[in-house]
Design brief:
Layout (H helix, E strand, L loop, with lengths): L4 E14 L3 E3 L2 E3 L3 E3 L7 H13 L5 H4 L13 H13 L2 E11 L9 H12 L6 E6 L5 H4 L3 E12 L2
Parallel strand pairs: 5-6
Antiparallel strand pairs: 1-4, 1-7, 2-3, 5-7
Helix pairs in contact: 1-3
The protein binds magnesium ion.
Magnesium ion binds next to strand 1 and helix 1.
Length: 162
């Protein structure tokens, strides 16, 4: 049998509200609104965590880190990614590559894409050449386009260690 691979998909949505810092991909990005949620509400790292868990049929972020658990109140979401990566490693798998898209009307994320990719690569323990971050607006329609929410999609490929 040839090399073994698994693919995982993640998606997340969070509301944008005044009075919260905007934490995205583990970075704090200057903006007049932030993402609302139990943790730091990092929509991108949540989508990435779900993609990682999904690849090995390990359920979803809500099962691993319930938003009813006070431990995750205000938690920095890089913890979720790091725990998922650690579990993948324990099971003998490693990240081959990750691609993701952030959907946001504002702020302009194109200037942050490189830094986001670098930070995500560090969290995944892979070279930055294996991580891609894309940014899309909502074309001024729907919750993203109206600036009410941000969404993120992520897809990850895992390979079995030889
Ligand atoms: Mg979330």
């Amino acid at each position: 049998m040839g090399p073994e691979y698994r693919v995982g998909l993640g998606h997340d949505t969070h509301r944008l509200v005044a009075g919260r810092p905007l934490v995205l991909g583990g970075l704090t990005i200057p903006h007049d609104k932030g993402l609302d949620g139990h943790s730091d509400a990092d929509v991108l790292l949540h989508a990435i965590t779900d993609a990682l868990l999904g690849a090995l049929a390990l359920g979803d972020i809500g099962e691993w880190f319930p938003n009813t658990d006070p431990r995750w109140q205000g938690a920095a979401s890089h913890i979720f990614v790091e725990e998922a990566v650690a579990e993948i490693g324990r099971r003998g798998w490693q990240v081959v590559n990750l691609d993701c898209t952030v959907h946001a009307e504002r702020p302009k994320l194109s200037i942050h894409k490189k830094e986001l990719a670098g930070n995500i690569a560090k969290l995944l323990g892979v070279d930055v050449s294996r991580v891609n971050v894309k940014a899309k607006t909502g074309e001024k329609v729907g919750p993203v386009g109206n600036g009410e929410a941000m969404m993120a999609d992520a897809v990850v490929l895992l390979g079995k260690r030889g």
